[in-house]
Amino acid sequence: MAPPVRPRVLVTRQLPGEALGRLGSHVELRVWEEELPPPRETLLELVRGVDGLISLLTDRVDGPLLAAAPSLRAVSNVAVGYDNIDVSACTARRIPVGNTPGVLTETSADFAFALLMGLARRVAEADAYVRAGQWRTWSPTLLLGSDIHGATLGLVGLGQIGTAVARRARGFGMRVLYVSRHARPELEAELGLRRVDKATLLAESDFISLHVPLNAETRHWLGRAELAAMKPGAMVINTARGPVVDQAALVEALSQGKLGGAALDVTDPEPLPVDSPLLKLPNVLIAPHIASASHATRGRMASMAVDNLLAALEGRRPPHCVNPELFA
Ligand code: DGY
The whole model's pTM is what? Predict the structure, then answer.
């Protein structure tokens, strides 16, 4: 008897850890091995004939891609965010879409807090100063920064990562405000947080940290009007998605000295062009979208993405599915 035909799966980049080895024992696997993502036209060719796709946030999974992949029946994104995927189009084709929540929460919160501290205490500037041979004496006025303890942190979004950042902030003696569609009285009681309206958050926060997914409601959540309403000298930390901030307005506010600084793990676009005006500003700290990038967490994300994909290929509900209505 002929062996059963194994599903064909495309993975759009090499992933860390053991997950792809495990996947390879269940499916006929094709991994895009290049450092850069497959160019769009190449991706559309690669998905022809595949049953499953493990995608990254650099791959657009939309109508044209689905049209190019008539046999596709499972999509699994190696990220908690899935704004790169047209979920409605997938649902219309009855394709489950998986993502990787939870496993990256603490790692991402660590990094958001690292950015906050690095920006407030000018860590990158200090390192560049020493490396440039400028350290000639101890000085009472050298590289003065802002205190973190006693400052007010405004969280935009109180999901898993926002909550994990709130815990860190409380440990550092910060006052924490938040805006969210849903009140979280149990967290308010446990962590001493206060839910406020947008105007209050903007007016009272020394640091604003963004923790919302990118969608039509959150695009340019921090726009020109909001930046103008922020406390003078306040700082912005963005580990969510670049377009949650109106980047042109941010550059303007920073250049005019209205804001104290910005720490960005995500930009609009990504990668940030090397001639971006952001890179000319000293009070800006930029990282290449690495908040979840620890060895352990990236391995767990890969493993979770494989679990989601295998479940969908077997007709089961993926453990983490963003269109669960397909299994209702
Ligand atoms: C995500 O998971 O959405 C992050 O942006 C990358 O880990």
Answer: 0.96
Ligand 1 in contact with 81 (CB < 6 A)? yes
Same domain, 193 and 320: no
Domain hosting residue 272, numbered range: 105-286
| Within a domain: 1 | no
Structure-token pair, residue 202:
């903007």
144 and 19 within one domain: no
> Is 320 annotated as catalytic?
no
* Nearest ligand 1 atom, CA 241: 5
Distance 91 CA to ligand 1 centre (A): 22
- 104 CB under 6 A from ligand 1? yes
Tens of pLDDT, residue by residue over 61-71, are: 999 999 999 99
* Each residue's pLDDT tens digit, 155-167: 999 999 999 999 9
171 with 263, same domain: the answer is yes
Which residue's C-alpha comes closest to atom 4 of ligand 1? Answer: 79
pLDDT given for residue 102 in this prediction: 98
Q: Look at residue 100 and give its three-state secondary structure.
A: coil
Report the alpha-carbon distance of residue 72 to residue 7 in Å, rounded.
10
Angle in degrees, CA 145, 151, 156, rounded to 5: 110
Q: How many CB atoms lie within 10 A of CB 106?
A: 17
